[in-house]
Amino acid sequence: MLDESSTVAVVGASLAGLRATETLRTEGFEGRIVLIGAEHHLPYDRPPLSKQFLAGTWGLDRVRLREPETIEALGLDLRLGHSARALDAEGHRLELDDASKVEFDGLVIATGAHPRTLPGVGDTAGVHVLRTLEDSSALREATAEPGTRLAVVGAGFIGSEVAATCHGRGASVTVIEVLSVVLEGALGEQIGAECSALHRDHGVELRTGVGVSGFAVNGVELDDATVVPADVVLVAIGVVPSTDWLDGSGLEVRDGIVVDATLHATDDIVAAGDVARWYDESLGGEVRIEHWTNASEQGVAAARDLLAGRAHAPSYVPVPYFWSDQYDVRIQVLGSPRPDDEVVVVDGSVPERRFVAAYGRNGRLTGALGFSMPRQLMCYRQLLERGASFDEALARTR
């Protein structure tokens, strides 16, 4: 049982870690909280890095998650600019990159994820990734000149948002995607085709169904032997959970930290955010989610579950939600759709890019997507919460 004499360490000072520290305090924990973050910045918001901050319309003051005085009021032992180097789970001890040790009674792991890279990229000049404030600032500076040729490798949400943002700043943008349409891996071929059309209609060139074989001085070499001319390249091919520091810790690591339905890896260690792979009782299997809303909600849940204790903690069973702003469209998704799900447009107009689509699998509603129709989309949250059938979801439109 954690009390005022206890120490809780939180590794990861982004959204999930911040929400965990705040929740520990609001739930009455008066002990010591050590917040460890690899970056020197106070916790900040990552979604604007591919949108408003990249565009230059927001500064650092707009992306901070909390003001300095609000962080100070939490009474934290802040260890910013330091990363965890090793964990002894049984001995309840962390080692940081400066060789200092932090002993804890409870631990929240919220180390997030880092960008995947392509083989042989290294420190190739002009090739960028996007995860931090510094990454976004560097990409903004590199694409500042109107007409800059930007090649975006990967047409997921980050790649698509950067393409839209930089096109709006005057860059000449080409998106390279190994799948047949944009966002096919997340939303399926039918909706992905609409996302592809959205880019093309705004003047962004798409090269789909082709991979990258290398980088040349004048651009990106594709595996069909063509070259996409580029002054700047963004590699946006997904992320990898940041778990290397857990080698030898005694925790199970498998594409994230494996935790149970209550987010516990051990009796005294919980995980939250991009790094957590938990057992979702509604899906009957493990899941790991890399979106903002999950990091926020799971940070809260992990702190509460740590305080409650493993035997008494409730299961974490969310209805996932995420959004993406591209050009003049807000794409919002509820649930856990898969690319091979059945998709039916249930409201609005696809040609006008204002519509809602329902996703179904094995007779069950699995998700709902909206293009600029937030009110109509949110009607499907309750259906997802109670595991409604696909037929029941479709009946709403009849």
Radius of gyration: 22 Å
CATH architecture level-2 label of the largest domain: 3-Layer(bba) Sandwich
Helix content: 10-25%
Total helical elements: 11
Shape: globular
CATH superfamily of the largest domain: FAD/NAD(P)-binding domain
Instruction: Indicate the low-confidence ranges by residue numbers.
Output: none
Portion of residues in beta strands equals 25-35%
Characterize the biggest β-sheet: 6 strands, mixed
**What is the SS-derived class?**
alpha/beta
Terminal-residue CA separation: 53 Å
CATH class of the largest domain: Alpha Beta
CATH topology name of the largest domain, in short, is FAD/NAD(P)-binding domain
What does this structure look like?
It is a single chain. This protein has 398 residues and is an alpha/beta fold. It folds into 3 domains: 7-114 and 239-308, 3-Layer(bba) Sandwich (FAD/NAD(P)-binding domain), CATH 3.50.50; 117-235, FAD/NAD(P)-binding domain; 328-395, Enolase-like, domain 1 (2-Layer Sandwich), CATH 3.30.390.30. The chain is 25% helix and 31% strand. The chain has 11 helices and 27 strands. It has a 6-stranded mixed β-sheet with strand order 3-2-1-7-20-19, with helices on one face. It has a 5-stranded parallel β-sheet with strand order 9-16-10-11-12, covered by helices on one side. Strand 26 and strand 27 (364-371) form a beta hairpin. The longest helix is centred in the middle third of the chain and has 18 residues, at 184-201. The radius of gyration is 22 Å and the shape is globular. The protein starts with 6 loop residues before the first strand and ends with a helix. The mean pLDDT is 96.
